[in-house]
């Protein structure tokens, strides 16, 4: 039986780096997902599987799509990767669909300390208002406002995606506990080669090739501090107006400004004591169950845990 892996995320755990550098390029992997071959032709299908109620879900098309991929290149490990699974507002329905299409798969979940994962998600997503009407789209949102809003709806969305134990347990019930595998993002940062050897063992692919492919790769870096500061400034100053039309050499100045704003260091997002308390309250019990179930050294990496 061919090796099949469903990589469900989590968010801000180098998923895009793995997709672009390894899954889509490794000679022993047949890859389904973003940056994979022909992705534009099936992106609507995989998005629907994650996001749509059965009323809109093209079940027959998805079934045929995955059947074709199960039969293609049987000598390679089949990897389906989609971190949007973690933020799905229909998590159980999405997981059930994945089990229907890839019933013999193993589940890969890469997790990250929520004290750093939440600020990282905010820097690239939460700081910019979306979804929203056009005149409000991507306006600045403060960290405090974003966390307060998301906490109000913590059963769904970004904050729910960091409740790793609940998601791991759900997939364990469907696929079997022994088929759920949890790796740590912190190990990827600390010793990339060691992390890739663990991942390659799970995928049953050549580790040396995987290590070589991922060397030096860092996709979807955190937005810069300048970018967040500029967006905050523009939100309160002539939002939606094209400033280049008012300035001499406007187009040239705009190009220079864009380059400058995207430059500089990554945005530094510090959690206040109050926000750290909220993060701890949301995740500590969940983390304790996960650490116990999968024998993970979460305390070593400073994860929120019961005191």
Average pLDDT confidence is 93
Category from helices, strands and their pairing: alpha/beta
Mind describing the biggest β-sheet?
Answer: 5 strands, parallel
Q: How many runs of DSSP E, i.e. beta strands?
A: 5
CATH homologous superfamily designation of the largest domain? P-loop containing nucleotide triphosphate hydrolases
CATH architecture of the largest domain: 3-Layer(aba) Sandwich
Strand order of the largest sheet: 2-3-1-4-5
How are helices and strands ordered from N to C? EHEHHEHEHHHEHHHHHH
Task: Choose one word for the global shape.
Answer: globular
Provide an overview of this structure.
This protein has 307 residues and is of the alpha/beta class. The protein folds into two domains: 4-117 and 161-220 and 283-301, Rossmann fold, CATH 3.40.50; 225-262. The chain has helices spanning 15-23, 39-51, 59-71, 91-101, 114-126, 143-152, 164-175, 185-190, 192-203, 207-214, 225-235, 250-262, 273-294; strands at residues 4-7, 29-33, 77-81, 106-111, 180-184. It has a five-stranded parallel sheet, sandwiched between helices. Helix 4 packs parallel to helix 7, helix 7 (164-175) runs parallel beside helix 13 and helix 9 (192-203) crosses helix 10 (207-214). It starts with a strand and ends in a 13-residue tail after the last helix. The model has no long low-confidence stretch (mean pLDDT 93).
Question: Any chance you could write out the topology, listing elements then pairs?
Answer:
Elements: E1 4-7, H1 15-23, E2 29-33, H2 39-51, H3 59-71, E3 77-81, H4 91-101, E4 106-111, H5 114-126, H6 143-152, H7 164-175, E5 180-184, H8 185-190, H9 192-203, H10 207-214, H11 225-235, H12 250-262, H13 273-294
Helix pairs in contact: 2-3, 4-7, 7-13, 9-10
